[in-house]
Design goal:
The protein is of the alpha+beta class. The chain is built from three helices and two strands. It is globular. The mean pLDDT is 84.
Amino acid sequence: MSPSATGSPRFSEQTLTALVSALQARAVSRPDNPGLIAFWPGVDERRMAAACAELVRLGYPVQRVTIAGWQGGKSRNGWALADGELAPS
């Protein structure tokens, strides 16, 4: 990713690159539950949808997922790489 490739004033190239790395690490370490709700400190929960939409725009296979077993057994929405893919399509 290059700064001109992101085209987004909301997220730096460094933040988006770190988010992709975090999504990859989660997919590898927790293939049964690969979703992230937030990525600290760069992307808090309320901005995660926008950051992931930016990654999709850049060609990354990011999708919304349901994260089971959250506090009290409730499910939450999160984000993960589709089918564990690690590179932009």
